[in-house]
Amino acid sequence: MNRRFLISAFVVGLCTAVSAQEPAALWGKAVQAAKKFTQGSDMKMGADGSLYIIGTGSTRTVDDYITLGGAQLALGTVYRGTNDNSQVTMMYLTKLDGGGSPSWTVYSKDAQASANNLVLQPVADGVVAFFVVEHTEKGGDHSPCFIDGTDATGNSHSLGWTLESAEASRYFKGVLMKVGSGGDIKWLRVLEPTDPSNQGLYPNAIAADDDGNLWIAGRQRVSFLLPKSDGTTETVAPSFGSSGDGSPMLVKLDADGYYLNHLEASGSASNMYVNRLVQQGSQLYLMGIGSGSGTVSLGDKSTSFSGACPYTASVNTDMTVNWVQAYPSSVSCTIQEMSLTAAGGSLWVTGTAKLELTTKTGKQVTTGTLNRDAVLLRIDAANGDLLDGYAKGKLQQGYFSTFMASDGYLYAVGHQGVWAGSEPKMPNGGAMFIDKFSPSDLTASVGSWDNVLENAAGAQTALLSPGGTLYTMTRSQQTSNALMGGPLTTGQTTGEYSCNLCAFQLPVTPAPTGIRDITHHPSPNTPTWYNLQGQRVQKPAKGLYIHEGRKVVVKD
Known about the structure:
This protein is an all-beta fold.
């Protein structure tokens, strides 16, 4: 008996959203500061589908508002120094609904945040932020504080930090801050540096495990005192001493932000950073860049650096290390705009990179001599082996986020800038694109959505909701930021750099956990069918299935 395959858009309620083959632009908005710049640093989704964003804005008076799509988010913070041309890089943390409307904003006052080093972790009853602040007045009596998001009049939460001298230095501290789902600041935990005049902490990642414990990661150059629940403190020192450019930092905290444990590193590295961190079950996966010559250990597991190269590691929640693996590069390696995703039994590393790597099978992954190529690496989550990789052969571009979809393919979100002689020509200011890959073969992409967002010159992050909405955080200096080539724009009105937030409806949804072992992923030419639980089926019987990103009815 012959089967007839009917697209669900025609058979099931004319559901056009699931049958569309191109992304549909939903909305775009710009976070802006009066006459100055803004920047986004991180964006995460809460359990209720809301978005949390954190970033910085350049201000010097309270009248330098931070706005989003015309809505006021925060007052500017005052610059209290003596340089008339200076301003404060203040911090904002905002909760948005799925349509991009703000619910509340927590922001800093008399505190300058370290741009790019602000990260978020949603929890059951709110969100936890990890970042660094500097005192804005070289010797003043104004304590840096944060304004509560529940009260428009501004309930203040002070760090209790007033400088007693007028030394020409901006002292800094690390901060962990929990904000409730309603915008109320629940607690502040301070990481006190032993040398506050030397910027020595770079927060790069935060995660939460299944027991509710928090994990913070990054780079450190000085020792820190972390609070413990019994009122004492714990000193966490850099592994490679003061002579190095930085040591890896991975610290375990309880749900209230108090110290529990930290990971020790040792060896001959001149520097080693934790740049990204993801949690899956009882394991945490981390990646970063290290350099040196010789053996370096995390816990009781070792690897070898030869010059600058990327590395990954697997750490259990009891702080034991499963493996650490460096990937020697035949050129001095750089990776910017990194991302790390765990899906399908693999780790997926992306970035804007310069590198020359060799996979386990001998495949060469090379970007040449420039550091502006988009790179995608597949790493075995069981042992850290570099299984596959892809470098896009065009200049000045990079991938900054990946997700595995229920159609069985891996999608890499990227951006391309402007480069003389590049082909194809990109819109002024560059553009965001999405490439589609067969996870078992990264020889080349099997499809692409081009020019999804114009002028996405600076990339930050992207995430896919369970319903298939892709939220992106990018940065642009242009005032024309068209979405999907249509009349919809981000509404940016200033020529200064601004943080742009956009939403697109994709014709795919995230892959369910454990959908498949990707080593058995079919080739792009093999028809693939999955039931609504994400399980692959060989011969679909009567019912509703997912096929090539569409919901399809199979009818006898």
